[in-house]
């Protein structure tokens, strides 16, 4: 009997080892729902752009995952079904794009389809990561039609979820942390489900309207040819003169259409790959009361910023570029792509854009954002706003700026160097949350690459020395600008000022002189209401001085800055600084004399750099306590 039992156990093990894996390998996800999008994928492949195909394939997979989540409650299929799922998807893709191999062309690994973010596999795993109050907020804004402005409101909440609670480890880029909220909303929150046109367009950038529009355009061409032929016959019968005049009129019309088509061609890919709204020029004119002078809220070298109101009552801000021509479309396209490619609670979100060519206004390029009710940081520090900001608000703004820049450097892929950090580009919403704005000068920075620019961009007083002198651009160039801006925020003084004897005064030099003399709190603006603790305020002053250090690698990174602000970590020791490039000869002579005598030197003017030794730092603390 025992021999028979052993034989039976062996047989059962052999049976399950053969049949078990075969039955578990079948893919549980339904890829047939993507068949309607195949025509658009085929259209993309005609452009000979693998990256576009891979993005489209990746978004299609995420749509399938949302449908699978709705059906099963799981984000990911079982690991032993990975190969089956890829094979099923590959077969579908091959129907529309022959010879396109997903693994080879896109670099996706087999196991990635079953391995995601922070070991989250199910609905309950996801909901445990997010506070109930924030989940309720997501349901409120995302459980509706996600067309136009509703889409922007929903995505704003999803970016808050991702930035605050889904920033852990992930495997590959197939199911990265940033897409989990969208899959969750499409599968479980939105009442119309993941296959709704507006839902797929908003959350996954999959759009069937382009396919439908193509069919309508084809029919329109046929109708146009037929009408043109009929008109030609009528013109021929009516007389050669009528035919000649008609021909000239059609020629002028075709020329106008050609110009407008060329103007829009650079933005077609943006409309398909983002949730941006493409406004008509008439909509923009109505929103701004025909660009009324009273609606101007800002001016710059690029043009004016207007406030406006949409038909639903939403207040918006519109940046209208001046001196536009069709040749400038690539740079405009770049700005729109940069802003639309990143989403974070401390980055200004883009609502949409407008391009048009009119007989009277000429070539127009406009971007549309939400209106920030509290204006810019420049308005509060140096503008018409009379009430000074309290310490609590300044601390909140400083942390928001740091988080926004840290996301550009380390959260965006590829990383983005802003290049124009200044008070005018920090906007404040109704709660004084900082929004980093104006990515028009931004540069994509491939990992490990130092960008060398032959054309330095930025604002005088904020540009890092290595960038201004040598064109060397890195993330730490933004750190320098952040340090200058932080000192402006703390002191209420501008980065560059002129003294009564027409000498240029750098805020960074003056702040360093106060720190060097043990008077760091002198940097804090006089008359600031509701001051914070002296230790915290001094910490922020030291951090501003360190970030604006003239030597590149003396500055911390933006993620280090955020950690210092959020925790009790001390500010690292400030390295010695060289003599200022605007120092007077007397300052240089004193510095040389002081160095030769073995001392660290003492600042004799607000423009001189001197060594900041550890002993000096202790001395500074003692003087501050005694003072």
UniProtKB/TrEMBL annotation:
Q: Name one Pfam family in it.
A: SPARK
Q: Where is the Protein kinase domain?
A: 291-569
User: Could you tell me the superkingdom of the organism this chain comes from?
Assistant: Eukaryota
Q: Which UniProt keywords apply?
A: ATP-binding, Glycoprotein, Kinase, Membrane, Nucleotide-binding, Receptor, Serine/threonine-protein kinase, Signal, Transferase, Transmembrane, Transmembrane helix
- Which top EC class applies here? transferase
Q: List the transmembrane segments.
A: 221-245
Please list which residues make up the signal peptide. Answer: 1-24
Bilayer topology: Single-pass type I membrane protein
Subcellular location, record wording: Membrane
Name the residues that bind ATP.
319
Q: Could you tell me the EC number(s) of this protein?
A: 2.7.11.1
Xref: InterPro entries = Kinase-like_dom_sf (IPR011009), Prot_kinase_dom (IPR000719), Protein_kinase_ATP_BS (IPR017441), Ser/Thr_kinase_AS (IPR008271), SPARK (IPR043891)
Q: Which GO terms describe its cellular component?
A: membrane
- Give the catalysed reaction(s), semicolon-separated: L-seryl-[protein] + ATP = O-phospho-L-seryl-[protein] + ADP + H(+); L-threonyl-[protein] + ATP = O-phospho-L-threonyl-[protein] + ADP + H(+)
| One Gene Ontology term of the molecular function aspect | protein serine/threonine kinase activity
Q: In its UniProt entry, what is this protein called?
A: non-specific serine/threonine protein kinase
Which organism encodes this protein? Papaver atlanticum
What lineage does UniProt assign to this protein's organism? Eukaryota, Viridiplantae, Streptophyta, Embryophyta, Tracheophyta
